[in-house]
Specification:
Shape: elongated
Oligomer: single chain
């Protein structure tokens, strides 16, 4: 199904209605989106655990499934959405989007990609580097050792960059280079989620 027109309803009312449900699960709403995909309309909730200190938001697959179930039941009762849709609940992901000045401040010191609506003073439109402290209304990024500050209003899109850090092999002594492995790639000590991965739970399509 490919919808040709955008369904009209108040996302603010949906946000207010689900607030008690999210609070009961100890999570907060990071973002709420109403988008169209090949399968039809999708109402997408992005959640994180309250006071989470990691980029992924501290929520599990089970958290997403539980929230999805209870939110779906509530929306069926409240009947706030005029057409059928898919419900999706997910964590922000390790490459989470940064949407507010508070989120930029929260992740100072982390690596991010910042796309600009207009060029920075040095002509760049894509800044990749460490997020630095900046005056109110600005965003600062350390790019190749150079501090670049731009107005927050010029940020078109920004995301954290998930980076794997190689760990020394078990038994390897510090201060000595590891032996070369011919014909083989060096392996990381610990597995980690792929960049961009998200935990999500899709609800069943609602039909009117």
């Amino acid at each position: 199904m490919e919808p040709s027109t955008r369904a009209v309803f108040d996302l603010g009312r949906v946000r207010d209605a689900v607030a008690p449900v999210l609070a009961s699960h100890g999570v907060t709403l990071v973002d709420l989106e109403w988008i169209t995909e090949r399968a039809g309309w999708t109402l997408r909730f992005t959640i994180e655990r309250e006071n989470a200190d990691d980029a992924g938001g501290g929520v599990t697959l089970e958290d997403c499934a539980d929230v999805s179930r209870d939110v779906s039941s509530l929306l069926d009762v409240e009947d706030l959405i005029p057409n059928h849709y898919n419900l999706e609940v997910s964590s922000p992901g390790l490459d989470r989007r940064l949407r507010t000045a508070a989120e930029f401040a929260r992740f100072l010191g982390r690596t991010a990609k910042v796309k600009l609506a207009r060029p920075a003073p040095d002509g760049q439109r894509l800044l990749r580097g460490e997020l630095l402290e900046a005056p109110e209304g600005q965003v600062a990024v350390l790019v190749d050792g150079k501090r670049i500050a731009v107005p927050f209003a010029d940020v078109a899109e920004a995301r954290l960059v998930f980076e794997l850090t190689a760990q020394p092999k078990k038994g390897q002594r510090q201060g000595k280079e590891p032996a070369k492995e011919s014909g083989q790639k060096k392996q990381l000590a610990e597995a980690a989620p792929r960049s961009g991965s998200k935990r999500s739970e899709r609800g069943s399509e609602k039909r009117k």
